Amino acid sequence: MIKISIIVPCFDIKKTIDSCLNSINKQHFSYLRTKLEVICIVDGNYEDFICIKLWRKRNLHNLNFELKIIILKENQGPGFARYTGFKASSGEFIAFLDDDDVWNDSKLEVQLDWHLKNPDKIMSGHLYSNGIDYMNTRTKKLKEISLTHLLIGGVRIATPSIMIRKAIWPYQPEKQRFCEDWLMISMIASIQNIYIIPKTLAFRSDKALPIDKDKSSLSNKKLRIRLGKIMGLIILFKRNIINFYILILLIIFQVILLLKNIYTLIIKKIRI
Length: 272
What we know:
The protein is built from 9 helices and 9 strands. Helix 7 packs parallel to helix 8 and helix 8 (about 220-240) runs antiparallel to helix 9. It starts with a strand and ends with a helix. The chain is α/β, with parallel strands linked by helices. Helices cover about 40% and strands about 20% of the residues.
């Protein structure tokens, strides 16, 4: 019996948590014997805890996984929430799902099957659709993602596509609020390239606002993301993953992108 721990950070989940948890509950395995553990981390909003309890009550008689709920006293961000869930996890494999995303019914089986055939690999990913799939264009052309790809940019490994074999992962989810998933993936890529399964197995929920209209989405907080990326680069330098000269070049590049984002924001406000 193979156990998979699925970590779900939860914040302002009223409209989306049902479809998120339903997509986990619908996971099917044609031949692999598995047990699923879902850890929902309520990130400082008690109303979200009530939403999860109501979902569990409605689905108690057809629940296909063990559900754990952890409540944080105040909002800490998805990185800290995933870190908290990881510490409470007991599965051999770790998967992540955001509360406004859903999985294809065969996602876990496809990915677990790959890991069982590749026991030396720490992590795999797959394609993800949020309705604006420009980041998938280049990723589709690559079989594996290297640290260089992640440092230069232009490719994306979406958090809901990640599966990690816990026993050979020497790290843990990063706690910082922005670009924590990029930093976590970069730490893994510093050890070995990350294989991308060429299938779209995760999607933005149709219950969530379109990504380009969702002002609360972290993906739309471009200035904070740039600053988070710079902080991530500094952390990689401190951990001896990149050297000083590469750090400076990459920070300059991020500052240029940051200034471009600021300029675009100013132009939009002027036009309004």
